[in-house]
Amino acid sequence: MLIDSGTPISILPEDFFHRLLEQVRKKVALEPMPFDPSLGYQLCYRTPTNLKGPTLVAHFEGADVLLTPTQIFIPVQYGIFCFAFTSSFSNEYGTYGSYVQSNYLIGFDLEKQVVSFKATDCTNLQDAPRVLPNFLSSPMYLFLLLVIFTKLIFLSLHCMN
Fold it and tell me: Any transmembrane segments, and where (predicted)?
């Protein structure tokens, strides 16, 4: 699975996507919208606020990441929420997109080859660790930043609403 903050929706291997799509349809009490050319072929629901369920769990080696409806369904128009996943049209690999990364701090430690996930309320970031200091013009902080990049340890904050 490729983790990509530049790809909004998650792309899943075709067989897995269709099985997941069917399970989501069964779990959502609302009637899916009929095909709408402006939305394309995707699972969408008409509701004034985001759906109440279901939740999903993304299973990674060593981590289970809970995905809530705000990460699973995205507002595409006022009152319309669509499933934030699509098919890769192959069964090779997938992409973990930016919508499912929201409200998580995602750490990348390339030296140890570890990716970590920490649930975070992105509307309240004063408690989150700071990646960069407020005053970047200080030579000491620029040197520290250079050392961090040299050691290839990256911490990426993916908080989007």
Answer: 140-160
